[in-house]
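DM from R.C. (forwarded with permission)

"hey, sorry to bug you on a friday — could you get me a structure for this? deadline for the figure draft is monday and I only need the backbone to look sensible"
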Amino acid sequence: MQSSTTLQLRHFSPADLPLVSGLSETCADGLVELHVWCASWDELRECGAQRQSFLAEDEQARARRFLRAQDAERYRLGRGWLRCLLGHYLKKRPELLRIEYGRHGKPYVLDLAAPSTLHFNLAHSGNLLLVALGRHRALGVDLEAQRADVNCELLVQRFFSQQEEAEFFALPIALRRDAFFRGWTCKEACLKALGTGLAMPLDRFEVAMTPDANLRLRADSTNDCAPDGWLLHSWTPRAGYAAALAIRGPHRPHRQPRPMGIEQRANGCN
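My reply, with the result:
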């Protein structure tokens, strides 16, 4: 990670929306500004009916395919809130935004007339949803409820690298659960920034299992994970949750991916 790059991270809740003007197109050299919006499903229900009207037909169709009513409701609430935020930052009507999907399902806003520099990603777990937004650099965000029934040791042995596994089991038992969720969210955030999903195995790159969570990637020309310029940040958005942000280095130009189908995210912790 380049020491000259500084992350300016601002956290917001739905009540802050009228007070936030947006993200500037330019920042000082070495400064990366990101906005992260955290909301519970209960908070989103307050204006949920209006925002659900923003959904496109393909989003409505996906909501109808959910077997559980709760899953369908949360999908509609989350997509409505996402469109509300994107419309706010792009200064456009939320219902008119065209959201497309990359080869592995990462969503992006398609506007051939006026391509946007805005990048975004969302994650949800338990009773929370996060939306992260920034400009010019691809980003990924992940969120996990720190459930007591998750077998952290087994997942580390199955999905993490040998180095990460060694670091994990060298920690005192009392610190391992937090270390696992910190490492897991950091890894998933990296994959979401790349837009690959779990098409790239989690053990192909490494993150520190200690609280500083420095991004550490193995040199491998096939994994598109050169470490220069990457930023990684982990935090606790609310009690009982772990979250992480990954911001991709500026040395690789962003290319809008080919549109594909609805995003399908596999997560071994959910």
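R.C.: lifesaver. The chain has one domain: 6-247.
me: no worries. The domain at 6-247 is CATH 3.90.470.20 (Ribosomal Protein L22; Chain A).
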